[in-house]
Write a structure and sequence with these properties.
It holds the Pfam family Response_reg. With about 220 residues, this protein is of the alpha/beta class. It is built from 10 helices and 5 strands, in the order βαβαβαβαβαααααα. The protein folds into 2 domains: about 130 residues, 3-Layer(aba) Sandwich (Rossmann fold); about 70 residues, Winged helix-like DNA-binding domain superfamily/Winged helix DNA-binding domain (Arc Repressor Mutant, subunit A, Orthogonal Bundle), CATH 1.10.10.10. It has a 5-stranded parallel β-sheet with strand order 2-1-3-4-5, sandwiched between helices. It starts with 6 loop residues before the first strand and ends in a 10-residue tail after the last helix.
Length: about 220
């Protein structure tokens, strides 16, 4: 019986590193079908098209995202799709928080191709992959209670509300967001109102301050 061809999605805004990841994937899965996306917007559009990747390799520093926000939200919207974070951040605290937020693995960008290949194989088999210096039984309680509550609220947003929130965080006005998303300003106002309610905040400043809890550099352990 022929072995099923795996569909791997790489989400990273650096073309050179996407190329390096492709080579690493090919090293372990030479027949894999590989897709590339550079922004959260492209990522969501791909998933909303009905695509079902077997694995996502996700950078944490992406245009249209704030720290762990994309990981948190995508895991909630597409829980069956395993996500491996691939990041230049190698701090133990960041790795632990990524796993707590639902990543199935964490690959430092300094890892060699063999490590990346091993990680992909292990996660596709249903296991969690961590760098050798991280112990899986130390992952629990990596996030503060405030961060956990915020993650749950972020998960409750619709994909469009999440996009709007990230654009609000970038400082865009409703009119600019409406133009970029090709919808009416009234629609954006309705989304913003719903976002404030779901995040339990009163205004844009509070919303931006709230999601800062999901930033990567908020804490060290």
């Amino acid at each position: 019986m022929a072995k099923r061809i795996m569909n791997i999605l790489i989400v990273d805004d650096h073309p050179l590193f996407r190329h390096a990841l492709i080579q690493a994937v090919r090293h372990g899965l030479p027949q894999a079908q590989i897709q590339e996306k550079a922004t959260v917007k492209e990522f969501y559009e791909y998933l909303e098209s009905g695509a079902e990747p077997d694995l996502v390799l996700l950078d944490l520093n992406l245009p249209g995202a704030s720290g762990f926000s994309a990981l948190v939200h995508v895991r909630a919207q597409y829980p069956a799709i395993p996500i491996v974070v691939v990041s230049a951040h190698e701090e133990t605290s960041v790795i632990r928080r990524a796993i707590t937020h639902g990543a199935m693995g964490y690959i430092p960008k300094s890892a060699n191709p063999d490590n990346i290949s091993d990680a992909i194989t292990q996660v596709l088999e249903g296991d969690i992959w961590l760098p050798a210096n991280i112990s899986a039984h130390h992952i629990n309680d990596a996030c503060s209670s405030d961060e956990t509550v915020l993650a749950e609220r972020i998960q409750s947003l619709t994909p469009q509300q999440f996009r709007v929130l990230m654009m609000v965080a970038e400082g865009l006005l409703n009119k600019q967001i409406a133009y970029d998303l090709d919808v009416s300003e009234a629609t954006i106002k309705a989304h913003v109102t719903a976002i404030f309610r779901k995040l339990n905040v009163q205004n844009r400043t509070q919303a931006v301050l709230a999601i800062s809890a999901l930033n990567i550099s908020e804490k060290t352990i």
